[in-house]
Amino acid sequence: MGMGDVDPVFIQAPEHRPKPSVILAEGIPLIDLSPINYHEEDTVSDPYAIKGLVEEIGRACKEWGFFQVINHGVPLDKRQRIEAAARNFFALSLEEKKKVRRDEINVLGYFEAEHTKNVRDWKEIYDFNVQEPTYIPPSVEPIDKDVIQFKWDNRWPQNPPEFREVSQEYAQEVEKLAHKLMELIALSLGMPAKTFRGFFKHHTSNIRLNHYPPCPYPHLALGLGRHKDTGVLTVLAQDDVGGLEVKRKSDGEWIRVKPIPNSYIINVGDMIQVWSNDAYESVEHRVMVNSEKERFSIPFFLKPALYTNVRPLDELVNEEKPPIYKPINWGEFRTSRLRSNFVKSNVENVQIYHFKVAK
Ligand SMILES: O=C(O)CCC(=O)C(=O)O
Ligand SMILES: [Fe+2]
């Protein structure tokens, strides 16, 4: 196949192709986290400022499911180091990268053939888990024997040599930010700040390095097809190229997320939707590619322990608002989603609405 020839595996159905005109207008909310990232010498932060912040977060989660944060407390040099390592790793030969390629048993490492909703994405990725070793088993009960028992061992590449260290150092910092955000989210739902903390003792959070090379037919393919994040919360670093689009809840339009230097894009995942009994919804998003510039992004996906049964929180349900979802075992949910990521298949992968309580 010659350069520029259209490979049908990447082609989106017409209704899912990117539109030539991009709506930049009113973007996702921009939130300043200074009130919680006060300096060490201040003994208490201003409770009034926190109250305003909590309200802002609640509104953003409800209206958009997405927001950007600045003054977030993640040191810029740590971010720059992992960004450089990602760039150097993806610049290696395919042969070299395939030495750490994921397979159907160990799902971590490099992968260049990811499908989203059965269409191939124009990207290559590298995944690692933040907690090592990752706590297994997924359930205290014996689970479905057909379910493949995945291994969760990080596959660190030899090159670039600093890759492992910078990745792990960065992970520590974004993880802290993710927990601070979960406290603000808990407060915004009217619950104690530490409400969610217990679900993450043996967490299965991971970081993904995304590389979207230039694409000769950006009007037909997507870097990443429309999807919702399955985990709890995503903390995403994007570079200055742009391409992420969020489906606006008010009218279903795709809205481009403007790159802001040293900011993070935060979005609610499926598990917050379940815990909050649909108060906060996990929103669809996708990535456009372009024919000139490559793009890099680094999401951190906060995920609970595999044995967690996620169900609407007691504080958020009552007689008028009964639980919308049956309990979802995170280990089983995750496992069945992972399996579907490998292959083009004709069945839809598991979604949280499959767990809805019949009306
Ligand atoms: O590259 C991006 O901006 C978004 C990536 C994303 O949505 C994902 O990896 O789930
Ligand atoms: Fe995503």
Automatic annotation (TrEMBL):
PROSITE patterns referenced in this protein's UniProt entry, alphabetically: FE2OG_OXY
Ranges annotated as spanning the membrane: none
Record keywords: Iron, Metal-binding, Oxidoreductase
Residue ranges constituting the Fe2OG dioxygenase domain according to the UniProt record: 202-304
InterPro entries assigned to the protein according to its UniProt record, in alphabetical order: DIOX_N, IPNS-like_FE2OG_OXY, IPNS-like_sf, Iron_ascorbate_oxido_reductase, Oxoglu/Fe-dep_dioxygenase_dom
One function term, GO molecular function aspect: oxidoreductase activity
Family, per entry: Belongs to the iron/ascorbate-dependent oxidoreductase family.
Protein name: 2-oxoglutarate and fe-dependent oxygenase-like protein
Taxonomic lineage of the native organism: Eukaryota, Viridiplantae, Streptophyta, Embryophyta, Tracheophyta
